[in-house]
Every structure is written in C-alpha cells, then in structure tokens.
Design goal:
The structure holds 2 protein chains of 2 kinds. Chain A has a domain at 5-91 and 163-242: P-loop containing nucleotide triphosphate hydrolases (Rossmann fold, 3-Layer(aba) Sandwich), CATH 3.40.50.300. Chain A has helices spanning 43-51, 73-79, 96-106, 118-131, 147-160, 177-192, 204-210, 228-233, 235-242, and strands at residues 5-14, 17-27, 32-36, 58-63, 66-67, 81-84, 165-169, 196-200, 213-218, 221-226. By secondary structure, chain A is an alpha/beta fold. By secondary structure, chain B is an all-alpha fold. Chain B is 77% helix and 1% strand. In chain B, strands 1-2 form a two-stranded antiparallel sheet. Chain B folds into 2 domains: 3-254, no CATH class; 257-346, no CATH class. The longest helix of chain B is centred in the first third of the chain and has 25 residues, at 60-84. Classes of the chains: A alpha/beta, B mainly alpha. The A-B interface holds A 51-53, 72-74, 77-78, 82-83, 85, 89-95, 98, 101-103, 105-107, 109-110, 139-141, 143-144, 157-158, 160-161 and B 199, 202-203, 205-206, 208-210, 212-222, 274, 334-335, 338-339, 341-343, 345-346.
Chain lengths: 244, 346
C-alpha cells in the first residue's frame, strides 16, 4: 500500500548550517507517528518543509501518491495536509468560531463537489468546537482563551481543513499534566476518525502514550525509527539525549 | 442588508445629498463636495489594502496621479493622432474622441489597477515597513517618469480645459463632475462593504492577522494580496481620473502631492480601519474641515489640521471614530462587542 507521506533524501540548509541532512521517512495511512529530538535537531524545519512554509533544497516529498515539491503551503493544505503551530497563531481579530470558518471557506469549499452551504459551515463549526469542548467560547476572541484552550483552537482549526494528515507541532508545550492528557486523548480521538497524525513533542510521557512509531532526529539526521519502546532504549538515542 | 439593497440605500442618500446641494444653489458646494467625495473614494481604496489586509501604502498619490495622467494622455491623443498617425486611424480617433468622463474613469482605473497588480507582484514577499517603503519608492519612480514624459506636459504640466457645460441633463460641468464622484463614492463604499462580509473579507483579515497561519489554513495569501493591491490601486486611479477636468491645469507636484498620500492614510485612521464606515467618516470629517479651513483661514492650514487630528487620534483613540463610538455606545451584537474589546486591548 502506498504510504500517505513519503520523504526521500530531504535536505535543508540555512547558509552554512545544515538543518536537515538526507531525511527519509514514510508515514502510513492512519498511523500515529511521534517525532522527537533535542532542541535544534530539525523537527520544526522538517515540519516547515513538509507543509511548504520552507522549501527544501534537495529531496522529494510525495503526499497521497503525488509529488508536492514546489507547491505552496495553502496548496498542500488543500491536498489534505494540516498543521498546528508550536506557538499558537490564532487570527486574533476573528472570533473563535470565525477562526474555524477560514479553513472551511478556503480549503474544504475549494475541493471538487464539497461546497458547503452557510448552514453546513455553521454546523461544522459547532461540531468542531464540540470536539475540542470550546462551544461556550465560540463568540469569544482568541485572547480570552486559556493556554490549553488556545492549543485546542489550534487543533480544531487544523481539523476544520478536513485533513488526511495532521502535523501537531509541540501542541502540549507549557500545559499541565492533566491538560497534556486532554490533548493526547483528543489527538487519539482524531486518529480514530481516520486521520494520520505526526506528533512533534518534548513531553515523553505524551509521546509514548500517543505514538505507534517513533522517529528521532539529531542534528538534522534521522538516527532512529521504529517501535517507541525499542527506540528509546537505542544507545544512540540515549547518547543524543543524555550525552556520552 | 444585501449588497444590492445597500447600494440602493446609498444611492438614495446620494440623491438626497445632491438634492440638498441643488437647493443651496451655489456652485462652490460642487467644488468643495467634489474634493470631499474624491477623498471618500481615495480613503476607501486605501482601506481595502491598508485596513483590511494590514499593508500600509504610502504611495496613494502615485495611483491617484496615474488616473489623472491617463486622462491627460487620452485628452491629448487626438492632437497626437492628427500629427503622427495615418489618416485612417486619425478619422477613427476623431469619431471616438473626446472620450466621455465615465470611459476616462474606467481606463484610468484599469491602468492604476494594473500598476497596483504590478506593485503587488513585485512586493509579494515584503511586509510591514518594507512594503510601505516600496510603495513610497513607486511613487517617486512614477513621478520621475511623468516629470520626464513630454507628451503629458513633463514638469511644465498640462492644461485640460473644462467644458462649460455637459450634454447630459443640462447641468454645468462641475456639477457633472460632482455627480460622477458621488456615484463613484457609492460604488467604492458598496464594494468595500461587500468585501468585508464575504469570503474575501475573511481572507484579508487572516492576512492582516498572521500570513503564515493563513497559508496553513488554505488561504492563498499571495493571490489575495494581488486582488487587494489591484482593487485598491484601481479605485485610487478612478478617483484621480476626473481630476484634470476639475483642476484645469495638472502638474506633477499637484498630482503626486503630499496631501493625497497623507489624507489617504489619515482619513481611514481617524475614521477607523476595521469597517467601510471609518474611511467614509474620516473623509467627510477631514475633507470637510480642510475645505472650511481653506476658505476661512488658508489652504496651507488644511494639512496642519490633518496632522494634528492624526496625532490626536493615534494617541487618544487608535481605533478611530468607530472605536470611540463602540466604546460609548456598545453594539448589541456580541461578535462586534468582542471584536471591539479585542481591538482596544491590542
């Protein structure tokens, strides 16, 4: 079966600094993949290259069976790739519900045969708000949300694009233990709906409880890829995290 | 209210304003009213890019001047044609020219829109202060081109003799220009309002808030920016197209004047940039005050008024008159209340 996401020999440099060095990665349909690595290992650069925010110098990225190199970020979103940001980036002059309208108008409505009526958009917004338990904040502005609510809004907005692949970039940073559990449960619920998820995270308990497969990046290179239990016992991974 | 209903309501208000001007029966009303209405169009056009998308354009005067100089170029074309073009072409030109004012406005708007598109395309990757500087540079480049273009008068300027009367409705020409600018204002306001309430309006708001997040949610930001620069430029050009007939003598320093660049920014800022009402209020207030100051004190004072009011509003009411209004007379719509609270906090 063709993987949903296929990355071959992807490299990215910033001047003389090699941020990503020949990354190969495959993500299967419906998979829950954890992506970890120390600060500066290239996780966010990889996400930015996959989502079209940055353009990779070498390598090929295939999504859903088609090459997406050179496509702009919004075109990749239209194809079914959505992301949440490390630091929440809501549209601060739009209400919470309006934040969700944007991907419905600009992504879902542009897909062939998927034009939503005004009533369907309203209903979908309510459904998404229910999914992240933010119904009561629908008419609030993002600045009125708590940190965890902001993270949930970020995920709901990514979900509003009706993605095949969701890339959650440090969705739990700065959250309490119980809030982390909330977000992990939410991500698992989304995965159960058939959405493939890549989770980039530093909180190991969350990564371990979420991931079916774990990939480790260090200094722009992939050093481990496999079952989470095996990967964290890999001596090279231990060295990368704990030092020699 | 649907867009066509709004257009009809605005048209009714416009007809009322024209009827009131006729009752007064003094041509000065048309002269002063034309300037205020021209600023309504200019401020509304600026707000499409500056207010809705958050891209500050310092080069409004350039787009205004493109409209004005397009009119000059077309006005002089029969002369050029009779001298340099073959008789066949000349006879066609003689039948078509002089072009009626609505055609001049459409052509001026189209060319300014095209330049707006070009500016948008060249500055796609620029944001904030860099974009603003690029627009300023565009104005300087265009002014230099016009100064050195002999056909449109170069630095000497060009005379455009305004006919005493128009063949339409049996009214004098300045009244006709006033009516045309009134209609153009209504069209510009209706377009701005329809953008606000459309998918395009949401797209523009996401560009203003966060372009990276906008792209990630599927908004084609580059395409939308091009739409905004083109629309904004086109309306500015339309505002400038009748200007040579109003002023009679057009020179680069008047067409590219500081007054247009400053007023185009100051009026939406003072009125409020979040809604179509802001530029309208700002233009009426500032434009009206400047006209009164020009008659009662001196025309040099008018820019001083703009500067003082701009400083006052930036410090005391950064969300303009609209922001002040919502502060003291809160809306019953919870979305509007939240939006105003958020705007005040930021």
């Amino acid at each position: 079966m063709t993987p949903l996401l296929q990355v071959e020999n992807l490299s990215k440099r910033f001047g003389g600094f090699v941020a990503l060095d020949g990354i190969n990665l495959e993500v299967a349909q419906g998979e829950r993949l954890g992506l970890i690595g120390p600060n500066g290992s290239g996780k966010s650069t990889l996400v930015n290259c996959l989502c079209g925010t940055l353009h990779n110098e070498t390598g090929d990225v295939h999504f859903d069976g088609r090459p997406i190199n050179g496509l702009q970020a919004h075109q990749r979103t239209h194809l079914g790739m959505a992301r949440s940001f490390q630091l929440p980036r809501p549209f601060h002059t739009l209400t919470v519900a309006e934040n969700l309208r944007v991907p419905l108008l600009y992504t879902v409505n542009t897909r062939p045969g998927a034009a939503l009526s005004e009533g369907q958009i309203e209903a979908r917004c309510r459904e998404l708000l229910g999914l992240v338990s933010l119904e009561h904040k629908a008419r609030k502005m993002p600045r009125d949300l708590t940190q965890v609510e902001m993270r949930k809004l970020e995920l709901a907005r990514a979900m509003a694009a009706d993605p095949k692949l969701l890339i959650a970039d440090e969705s739990m940073a700065g959250l309490s233990q119980s809030e982390v559990k909330d977000i992990v449960a939410l991500l698992i619920r989304l995965n159960e709906r058939g959405i493939t998820i890549i989770l980039i995270e530093h909180i190991m308990s969350a990564v371990m409880s979420f991931s079916q497969r774990l990939v480790v990046l260090v200094s722009g290179r992939k050093i481990a890829d496999g079952n989470p239990g095996d990967v964290i016992r890999d001596p090279e991974v231990e060295r990368a995290y704990l030092g020699q | 209210m649907r867009n066509w209903q709004f257009f009809l309501a605005a048209l009714a208000v416009g007809i009322g304003a024209y009827a009131a001007a006729r009752l007064i029966g003094n041509d000065y009303i048309y002269f002063a009213g034309y300037v205020v209405l021209q600023f309504v169009v200019l401020a509304t056009a600026w707000n499409i890019l500056g207010g809705y998308c958050g891209y500050v354009n310092f080069g409004s005067a350039a787009f205004f001047a493109i409209g004005a100089y397009t009119t000059v170029a077309l006005h002089k074309f029969p002369q050029f044609s009779s001298r340099y073009l073959p008789e066949v072409v000349n006879s066609v030109v003689a039948t078509l020219f002089p072009l009626p004012m609505p055609v001049l406005i459409v052509v001026g708007g189209a060319i300014a829109g095209l330049v707006g598109f070009g500016m948008g395309y060249l500055t796609l990757r620029l944001r904030g202060v860099f974009f603003a500087i690029a627009t300023l540079a565009l104005a300087v480049v265009l002014q230099t081109l016009i100064v050195n273009w002999d056909y449109v008068g170069g630095s000497r300027g060009a005379y455009v003799i305004r006919p005493a009367a128009t063949p339409y409705f049996g009214i004098n020409y300045i009244e006709y220009l006033f009516l045309i600018m009134l209609l153009l204002s209504i069209v510009a306001i209706t377009v701005a309002r329809s953008i606000e309430r459309s998918q395009l309006g949401y797209g523009f708001a996401t560009i203003r808030d966060d372009e990276l997040a906008a792209e990630a949610t599927g908004v084609p930001t580059l395409r939308l920016k091009l739409i905004a620069t083109t629309l904004s430029g086109a309306f500015m050009g339309m505002a400038g197209a009748p200007f040579p007939f109003y002023i009679g003598y057009l020179e680069p320093s008047s067409a590219f004047g500081l007054a247009y660049a400053v007023n185009a920014i100051a009026m939406p800022m003072i009125g409020g940039t979040t809604s179509w009402v802001g530029p309208l209020l700002g233009a009426i207030l500032l434009g009206g005050l400047q006209q009164i100051a020009s008659v009662t004190i001196s025309s040099a004072v008018s820019l001083l008024i703009v500067g003082l009011l701009l400083v006052f509003f930036v410090i005391i009411a950064p969300n303009g008159i609209i922001g002040l209004w919502h502060k003291y007379f809160p809306s019953k719509d919870p979305d509007v209340v939240e939006r105003e609270r958020s705007a005040e906090a930021t």
